[in-house]
Design brief:
With 52 residues, this protein is an all-alpha fold. The protein has one helix and no strands.
Length: 52
């Protein structure tokens, strides 16, 4: 029952792939946050609490 498990190897990404993933994540985050900040700053915080 006390069997030691080896970590699963799975897919190992290269440094270039990790850098690409990190850049893609930052781009997606900015693509979401910039319009949100624009809406809150220029349209007012009420834009987030309007009825659906």
């Amino acid at each position: 029952m006390d069997e030691k498990r080896k970590p699963e190897e799975g897919i190992v990404l290269t440094e270039a792939q990790l850098k690409s993933r990190r850049q893609r994540s930052i781009a997606i985050a900015l693509g979401v946050l910039v319009p949100l900040f624009f809406a809150v700053i220029f349209k007012g915080p009420a834009v987030l609490s309007r009825p659906l």
